[in-house]
Amino acid sequence: MTIKPRAHDLPSSLTRSMLGTTASESLTHVTATPLHFFLLGATGRTGSLFLTQALSRGHVVTAFVRNASRLPAAVNAHPNLRVVTGELHEADKMLRAMKKITPDAVYIMLASEVAPYTAVSTGTESVLFALRELHATHPANQKTIPLISIAAWGLGPTAGYIKGLFSRWIVGVAKRSFWAKPFADFERQLADIEGAPGIIIPIIILPPILNNREKSNSYLSGDASAMRNVMGITNTVSRASIADLCLKLGENVVSGHKIPQWIAITNP
């Protein structure tokens, strides 16, 4: 079934809209079924917004971070926040953290913006190692875990969706120049994800240009193939809207709803 993009809808077979949350809402708002999320990138510009929104929905979040002092001050003492400090390559630490409470979903909200430009693939490799070990050594935990990660429009199958000679030229130049190393890192991540069938349910979010505005109540999201005609290289969307979408995706895929692997999001 082809999923058409709809304003503020989930890219699934659901027909009813889901209530979202913003970073300014009370952290006491509790969802009906609390879930446990494992989060990489909790101190980043998108991850910190997701962390706040997830806690406000009553979920438990294990944040694996290098520096706990960079977590949002508003959530530092939240009872549903578990903080584990470590480096992205320390897969054994991630495994120990996951053994305590097997996560319902894993979120990778990392960016490879600084040297050595390998944060996304390194974090993904460590997560996959931990999940494979859980799957192999804990029979009771042999469930397929949703892995939700943020990439960018133009990656994966969407490379062929970019319209117009000029737009394709611009993207090609970016991939060969200033975006070459982050692009290569995302490509390594996608290869690792494709090599983990039966361990994860991969869901890749593909936004256009990001900004720091408030969450929109009218953003568009859906299967990337169905979104191809509304996406453009100059489109924008807020990080708060992406965090909102990621939270809804996690809640719904854990509930058993089928979610496409490649999800696009943009403002109308």
Describe the model.
With 268 residues, this protein is an alpha/beta fold. The protein has a single domain (6-266), classed as Rossmann fold (3-Layer(aba) Sandwich). It is built from 7 helices and 11 strands. The chain has helices spanning 47-56, 91-100, 119-137, 165-176, 180-194, 224-227, 239-254; strands spanning 6-7, 36-40, 60-65, 81-85, 105-108, 145-150, 200-206, 209-211, 220-223, 236-238, 262-266. A 9-stranded mixed β-sheet has the order 1-9-11-7-6-5-2-3-4, with helices on both faces. Helix 1 crosses helix 7 (239-254), helix 2 (91-100) crosses helix 3 (119-137) and helix 3 (119-137) runs parallel beside helix 5. The radius of gyration is 18 Å and the shape is globular. The two termini are 23 Å apart. The relative contact order is 0.19.
Could you spell the SSE succession in H and E letters? EEHEEHEHEHHEEEHEHE
Would you report the number of β strands?
11
CATH class: Alpha Beta
Indicate the proportion of strand residues.
15-25%
Any idea of the CATH topology?
Rossmann fold
Mean pLDDT comes to 86
What's this, in brief?
By secondary structure, this protein is α/β, with parallel strands linked by helices. It has helices spanning 47-56, 91-100, 119-137, 165-176, 180-194, 224-227, 239-254, and strands at residues 6-7, 36-40, 60-65, 81-85, 105-108, 145-150, 200-206, 209-211, 220-223, 236-238, 262-266. It is built from seven helices and eleven strands.
